[in-house]
Amino acid sequence: MNTPFFPPIECEQLSDIAAYQNLRLHDALGYLKANSPFYGDLFNKNHIDIREIKTVADLVRIPVTTKDDLQQRNEDFLCVSKNKIIDYITTSGTSGEPVTFAMTDLDLDRLAYNEAVSFTCAGGSESDVYQLMTTMDRRFMAGLAYFLGIRMLGASVVRVGNGIPELQWDTIQRIKPNAIIAVPSFILKIIEYAEQQGIDYRSSSIKSAICIGEPLRKSDLSLNTLGRKIEEKWPLQLFSTYASTEMGTTFTECRQGTGGHHHPELIIVEFLDDNNMPVREGELGEVTVTTLGVKGMPLLRFKTGDVCHHFTSPCPCGRNTMRLGPVVGRKNQMIKYKGTTLFPPALYDILDNIDYISNYIVEVYTNQIGTDEILMHLSGKGIGEEKEKDIKDHFRAKLRVAPLITFASESTIQKMQFPEISRKPVKFIDNREKNGNFSG
Asked: Alpha helices, DSSP H only, in 239-387?
C-alpha cells in the first residue's frame, strides 16, 4: 500500500521492530528526566540511572506508574510550560476520578497521525466518508482524535455526534457516507430504529464500522454475541479498536480480524502480571504502556488496568507488529462471586444473547456479609418475573452462578446508562465499599 500511513516499520521483522523501539525508548527517557517533575523524582528516589536502561526488557528496573499517581500528582506529569498547551482533555473516569491531560500542538499532530494510521489499518483511504457517532465536546479525546485523523488521511467526515437515531439515518440518506464510527451497542439501536421506520438499512451506503468502547470479539478472536448480532442483522465489515486517553494511541484491527495492531513508532507495550513482571504470550497480562513522541504529558510504564492477551505471529495483512486481543476486563472491575471470578464482559455476552432483553445495567455492591453481590437491571418487551428463571438458567449454564435480577422500563435503564456528565454509555456500576462509587 503506497501511503504515508502504512509505516514500513510495521512490516519489519520483530527483531528490527524491537531494535527501533529501543532507540525510541532512549529518547523518551532522556526527555522525561529533563522535563518531568514526576519522573525526575521517581528516578532519583529509586536511584535509577537511565543510561542503564538500554532495551525495553530493562524497563522492569523502573517502578510502574498507576492511575493513583496521575490523580494525586496530575500537574507533576506536565513537561511543558502552560503557554505551550493547546488543548485540555480529561479521561472518562471509568476507573475512578477523571484525570486532566494537557496537549501541545505537536501532541495534536501525533494524535491525528495515530488515527490516520489506524484508519488505514482498517482499510481506510482518502476516498472514504466517515459518519462520526461520538461526541467531540465534554473534554472527550476520542471524537477530536477521529476528526483530526480523518482530516489528515484526506477523507471526509460528518460530525453527527452520539445518539438520535433519526438524525443518524437522515444523515446517512442525505450524505451517503460509507463508514461509521460508533459504539457497537448503538449500532443495534440504529438498526432497531431503521426496522421500525421501514428503512432498508442493508441497502444503505454504509459498508463498514469502526467500533469503539465495547469489545466485539472473544479471547479466541471470534465474534462475541454483540458482534454476531450486528453482523447477522447488517453484514458490515466490523473493525474493533482499543485505546485510552492516557496512551493517546489506538490499536485497530485490519480486515483479517486478528487483534488490534501495535504501532511501534507511537508506543511501547508491556503485558504484566500482579508482580509487574512480563507474562508470556498466551497468558493474560495488564496492558502497560510507555508513550513515544508525546510532549505535554508523556507516560512511562503506565498500567492501564485493562487485561488482555497478545499475539506475535505475522498477520496475513503483511504487518508483523504485535497484536492485542479484546479486553477481557478491567482489573479493578473483577468480581468475586460465590467462589467464581468474573469480569463484566462475561455477563454482557450472556445478556446480549437473550433475545427478549433489550437493555441492561450490571451493578455490583458489597452485601451484608462483606462479599460481592451482582444485581442486573433489565428491560425488554414483555419481560417480567416470569422470565427470571429462564434468565438465571442462562447464567448457570455459562458461569455456574446466577446473579440477582430486577426489571425496569427502557426509559429507566437509559437514564441510568446516560447520566448527565457521561460521554459514553454506562453498562457497569460499581458500588462496592472497597472501591467507592464509580461506573464504567
From this structure: 344-352
**Running DSSP on this structure, what letter comes out for residue 391?**
H
3-state secondary structure of 274: coil
**Is residue 188 within 8 Å of 215, Cβ to Cβ?**
no
- Which residues lie closer than 8 Å to 72 by C-beta, 6 or more apart? none
Q: What's the Rg (C-alpha) of the chain?
A: 22
Under a CB-based contact definition with an 8 Å cutoff, are residues 336 and 365 in contact? no
Kindly list the structural domains of the chain, giving each domain's residue range(s) and its CATH number in brackets, ordered by start: 1-329 (3.40.50.12780), 334-439 (3.30.300.30)
Could you report the per-residue pLDDT of 340-387, keeping only the tens digit for each?
Answer: 777 888 888 888 888 888 889 998 888 877 778 899 899 888 787 778
Query: Would you say 281 and 312 are in contact if contact means Cβ atoms under 8 Å apart?
Result: yes
Residue 295's identity, in one-letter code, is K
Cα distance between residue 229 and residue 133, in whole Å = 19
Query: pLDDT per residue over 69-125, tens digit each?
Result: 998 999 999 999 999 999 998 876 555 567 889 999 999 999 999 999 999 999 999
Neighbours of 222 (CB within 10 A): 11
Structure pTM?
Answer: 0.80
At residue 160, the 3 state secondary structure works out as: coil
Q: What are phi and psi of 420, to 5 degrees?
A: -55, -35
Residues facing residue 407 across a β-bridge: 378
Distance between CA atoms of residues 13 and 10, nearest Å: 8
In this structure, what C-alpha cell is assigned to residue 109? 499532530
> With contact defined as beta carbons under 8 Å apart, do 240 and 326 qualify?
yes
Average pLDDT across the chain, whole number: 89
- Is it the case that residue 435 has pLDDT exceeding 50? no
Residue 336's pLDDT band (cuts 50, 70, 90): confident
* Residue 415: other Cβ atoms inside 10 A: 12
